[in-house]
Write a structure and sequence with these properties.
18% strand; twelve-stranded mixed sheet
């Protein structure tokens, strides 16, 4: 498809992830640096009108799915308004959240036609969850996950698997999907500014499956052409599980994702060093489409041109990127 959203490798980017804020009511270790974290000023954030304008531009050029992220998108004061406005576009609208506030937004989600909710949760153990998130909200998040499932939302539970931290819990997460139609997704630990990543802490796709093989009998499911997760299902279970193997088995060849940060910068890859200031151009009354095209054309074939093909050779000290919380999950 010929479009400003098609890169030089022929990849068409019809999936836009928009961060609403870099603020969050949790302090997860792999997402937010423990020290020296400075947050965006309110004036630097896209307003609801500006976000709507840019989203509309992308939809006109072929975007068919928008996912709202953060930080924690639901702490944004205008979250309900933004969700409602985006719900008017002919797209699939989804959100990634930590689950703390979702019970307050069920009607907003329904009215906007938002059917898919991803919840970030890295431990079902109260003490460990509090250590990872530096907050004590596990019971509330679990209740809200079950509430979403009860109300018919498609619920994905995203667990970042960190060796020596929580990898022993992968089986418990899968077991949770026996009666509930939850889609558990195990994510390989990825490097971002200030998150303490090391290759030794990566639990790979293969290792995650090894941890599950003795406990469950599962089958491989068919993946979609742009899926980042390789999906499986335990026989007789209501839900599924999948592995996002960014580090050990990257899926860059079929990538259709681009990201717009809360301060209006376009990133053509999660790991890209460069980013393009669309919000600044919009506020100056300049044409945005040429900037979008230029950014998409500059996309590297794999891993933002920064990470090594063998993740063991990646030196996090040499990477130039933002913290995960300021990119958008």
């Amino acid at each position: 498809m010929s479009s400003i959203l098609t890169d030089r490798f022929g990849r068409f980017h019809d999936y836009l992830r928009i961060s609403l804020t870099d603020a969050c009511n949790l302090r997860c270790q792999y997402c937010m640096p423990e020290e020296d974290m400075s947050f965006m000023t309110r004036s630097s954030l896209m307003t609801a009108d500006e976000l709507d304008t840019l989203a509309g531009l992308f939809v006109r050029h072929g975007v068919r799915k928008i996912r709202l992220t953060g930080g924690e998108p639901l702490v944004r004061k205008e979250a309900a308004e933004i969700i409602s406005r985006l719900g008017r576009y002919p797209i699939e609208l989804a959100i990634t959240t930590n689950g703390v506030l979702v019970d307050r937004f069920l009607d907003v989600f329904k009215d906007a036609g938002l059917k898919s909710v991803n919840i970030s949760l890295d431990s079902l153990n109260a003490a460990l969850n509090q250590k990872i998130t530096r907050r004590d909200h596990l019971d509330l998040v679990v209740r809200n996950i079950e509430l979403l499932a009860e109300f018919g939302f498609r619920v994905k539970v995203n667990m970042v698997v960190m060796k020596g931290v929580n990898e022993f819990e992968v089986g418990d997460f899968v077991a949770w999907s026996k009666e509930l139609p939850l889609h558990i997704r195990f994510i390989e630990y990825m490097p971002f500014d200030g998150n303490g990543w090391s290759a030794a802490r990566v639990t790979t796709h293969e290792q995650i499956l090894e941890l599950l093989t003795d406990r469950f009998e599962y089958n491989k499911l068919k993946d979609g052409p742009n899926d980042t997760a390789r999906a499986y299902q335990v026989k007789g279970y209501a839900g599924t599980f999948a592995v996002i193997s960014t580090m050990s088995q990257p899926f860059c060849e079929t990538c259709n994702r681009i990201r717009l940060t809360a301060d209006g910068k376009l990133k053509n890859c999660l790991f890209s060093q460069g980013e393009t200031d669309l919000l600044g151009a919009l506020r100056r009354g300049e044409e945005v489409e040429p900037l979008v095209k230029q950014t998409i054309q500059a996309k590297y074939a794999r891993l933002g041109g920064q990470l090594s093909e063998d993740y063991h050779e990646t030196d996090p000290a040499l990477l130039k990127n933002r913290a995960m919380i300021s990119i958008g999950g």
